[in-house]
From TrEMBL:
Residues 24-266 form the Orn/DAP/Arg decarboxylase 2 N-terminal domain. Pfam families: Orn_Arg_deC_N, Orn_DAP_Arg_deC. It comes from Flavobacterium granuli. Coiled coil: none annotated. Residues 18-354 form the Orn/DAP/Arg decarboxylase 2 C-terminal domain. Its EC number is 4.1.1.20. The active site is at C328. Its cofactor is pyridoxal 5'-phosphate. Pyridoxal 5'-phosphate binds at G218, Y356. NCBIfam families: lysA. Pathway: Amino-acid biosynthesis; L-lysine biosynthesis via DAP pathway; L-lysine from DL-2,6-diaminopimelate: step 1/1. It catalyses: meso-2,6-diaminopimelate + H(+) = L-lysine + CO2. This is Diaminopimelate decarboxylase.
Length: 406
């Protein structure tokens, strides 16, 4: 997308605003499937927690992907978006047996990540096809909050508990059809990923009726010019060869599953915000925008960097700015960042705003959530309306008139 397109959308739909480029999502999907084209049975399940707008789900469905979900509400959104139950994969963490049984009744694939629920579910439903999430105890990810495969992680069943796991499966006669792992997000070293894959292969050998292996995702995308990223093509070449060899060894052609979220939608997203004030202090020049961590929390929560451009004056002289929000907390998007000279009223564009941005937004300070727009075939399509005061009041109930204050 061009700056002029983004400015036009900001004028048309207001600020702050999320914009998603459909063509970029498609190209990322094609890149991943091409990298693993040597695998006969490949399935991509979009990790919808990254961006769960129904229009985005429908767009990705048309590409041929399934869904990776982590809650019953995400399953319901997937069904609402038109996904067949068998195209939805459910991988919760720390949920009740009741929720898992309710999702199972919807006909989606269940993935269980702890021994307690595994035994309870297997005892009651031994014939239901179940996937098991293991924890390979491999440290991977760009931040401790998104590294989920290490020994202290709450996710997955430890490989050291494999004897216990096998005993539960034997006692319940469960139908185990898949093995799953997810080491974390922002994986750079594909050798670490391949090492974890070998652990998954070793576990898979213990089960005789598997239909698929799910390798999760966590591929690193670039956040700035010349930034490093996961080499998908090299990973595809090496893992495809190893996976095909394992299938021959196993004696059955299995399906290889990935569940990318950020990889598909991060670079497709743009967040637009207007500069309310340029504030010079004794040491810093602040650019205060009409947004805050209620709309984009990743820089504060993960320490992530989003490239920021002044699309109103992209060729202006560069100066150093600290870009901050309007929330009554310290919500700093960037410290001393070189940006083309900023004036009040300018539109700033935050790149890589497609993943875990709107989906982690809140109404903190009673601010409205922004609108979302899909850029498709050279046009902007509103796919979520901006919230209003009525949205803030929805589901709230006034104090009963019978109650008297003291």
């Amino acid at each position: 997308m061009q700056a002029k397109d983004l400015l036009q959308l900001a004028e048309q739909f207001g600020n702050p605003l999320y914009v998603y480029d459909a063509e970029k999502i498609q190209s990322q999907y094609n890149r991943l499937t091409k990298a693993f084209s040597k695998v006969d049975k490949l399935r991509v399940n979009y990790a919808m927690k990254a961006l769960s707008n129904v229009a985005i789900l429908q767009l990705i469905k048309e590409m041929g992907a399934g869904l990776d979900t982590v809650s019953i509400q995400e399953v319901e959104l997937g069904l609402h978006a038109g996904y067949a139950p068998e195209k939805i994969f459910y991988t919760p963490n720390g949920v009740s047996l009741e929720e898992i049984e309710e999702v199972n009744a919807m006909g989606v694939q269940i993935n269980i990540d702890n021994l307690s629920i595994l035994e309870q579910f297997g005892t009651k439903h031994p014939n239901v096809p179940v996937c098991i999430r293991i924890n390979p105890h491999v440290m991977a990810g760009g931040n401790t909050n998104i590294s989920v495969g290490h020994i202290d992680s709450k996710f997955g069943i430890s490989i050291h508990q494999l004897p216990h796991l096998l005993r539960i499966v034997e006692n319940t006669k469960m139908n185990i059809v898949g093995i799953h792992m997810h080491t974390g997000s922002d994986i750079l070293d594909i050798e670490v990923f391949l090492y974890a894959a070998e652990i998954l292969f070793d576990v898979a050998k213990k089960f005789k009726n598997l239909e698929f292996l799910d390798f999760g995702s966590g591929f690193k995308v670039p956040y700035k010019k010349d930034d490093i990223e996961t080499d998908i093509e090299e990973l595809g070449k090496k893992l495809s060869k190893r996976f095909n060899a394992f299938c021959t060894e196993y004696g059955k052609e299995l399906t290889l599953i990935f569940e990318p979220g950020k990889f598909l939608v991060s670079e497709a997203g743009f967040f637009l915000a207007k500069v309310n004030v340029v504030k010079q202090t004794t040491s810093t020049v602040f650019a205060g925008i009409d947004s805050g961590f209620n709309h984009l929390i990743r820089p504060m929560f993960y320490g992530s960097q989003h490239h920021i451009e002044n699309i109103s004056h992209p060729k202006g002289k560069e100066r150093f700015y600290s870009v901050v929000g309007y929330i009554c907390e310290t919500d700093t998007f960037a410290n001393n960042r070189r940006i083309s000279e900023i004036k009040e009223g300018d539109i700033l564009c935050f790149r890589n705003a497609g993943a875990y941005c709107f989906s982690m937004a809140s109404n903190y300070n009673s601010r409205y959530k922004p609108a979302e727009v899909l850029w498709l075939n050279g046009e902007g399509h509103l796919i979520r309306a901006r919230e209003t005061f009525e949205d803030l009041l929805k589901n709230q109930l006034p104090l009963p008139t019978a109650i008297t204050t003291v």
